[in-house]
Amino acid sequence: MNKIIIGTRGSKLALWQTNFVKAQLEKLFSELNIEVNIIKTTGDKILDSPLSQIGDKALFTKELENALLKKEIDVAVHSLKDLPTQLPDGLMLTSVLEREKPNDVLISKNNLKLSQLPKNAIVATGSLRRTSQLLHCRTDLQIVDLRGNVDTRFKKFDESNWNAMILAFAGVKRMNYGERIAEIISMEILLPAVGQAAIGIETRSDNEFAKNVVRKLNHDETEIAAKAERAFLRRLEGGCQIPIGANATIVNGKLFLDGLIASLNGKILLRDSVNGKIDEAESLGISLAEILLAKGGDKILEEIRL
User: Fold this and answer.
1) CA 123, CA 143: separation in Å to the nearest integer?
2) Known catalytic residue: 48?
3) Which pTM was predicted?
């Protein structure tokens, strides 16, 4: 009962997150023996296709969840944005760590901001959510697909003729590329992915020891925000193929949730917000989804899924 096996992907960012979790647990439980088991996921193996074309909502989590169910690991550490809103029977999201800044950032040649990029500038991103919002903001932009870990993306960018690329602030900061940020993009322009910048820890529902251990790392405000965002996404049945963004914050004990659904070309962007009590997080997420569906989001989603 003094041993925990953590499952993780093998990317540098995933290992940073796992080592962060490991260090926090070691501070709290000096007698705890922690092992790390690196597991390759489908998303790590298929690097030559856009995420939106692979079509699996569990691209970066399924193999970790299988290892949990087989009792090969006790906990799985995820980037929360990668974790589907519907978990397999027997598994649960046990802990959500305090979130880093959830914004996206612009990396550009000559350190130009988004508004300063030349007409018809080439911008790289692997995200349909980012693509649709960028095109809604600037119809002239030429979007190219970008996959790979943070180091790979910077290498591709530096060797390309691209003007800019979009990444998540959290990953850029954690991988020590912070000095390359040209602009932290306002959420008025780019609403982040659900759960972006938060680390989630998944366990088996019946593993009381592991649950009690990792629960100590939970950050209540981030967990509440994540519940609202994930309920919003779950109601929309969204995944990598759907341009959906959301961000929840707690201000003076009140929960505020912004969300959007956009067409692939960015011509239609539906955005709204709700607020309410923090103990209504999930119902607020569902309510916001219903509002956007009623505004025409249902037609957007139907067309994208055809």
Assistant:
1) 5
2) no
3) 0.92
Please name which of 200, 203, 202, 206 lies closest in space to residue 226, comparing C-alpha atoms.
200
Residues β-bridged to residue 273: 258
Amino acid type, 296: G
For domain 220-306, give its CATH number from 3.50.30.30, 3.30.70.580, 3.90.1300.10, 3.30.160.40: 3.30.160.40
Name the CATH superfamily for 104-184.
Answer: Periplasmic binding protein-like II (3.40.190.10)
Number of residues in the chain: 306
Q: Counting Cβ atoms within 10 Å, is residue 110 exposed (0-12), middle (13-18) or buried (19+)?
A: exposed
Residue of 74, 82, 104, 258 marked active site: 82
Rounded CA separation 197/244 (Å): 16
Element (H, E) at 62: helix 62-69
pLDDT tens digits, 57-67: 566 688 999 99
Pair 33, 2: CB distance under 8 Å: yes
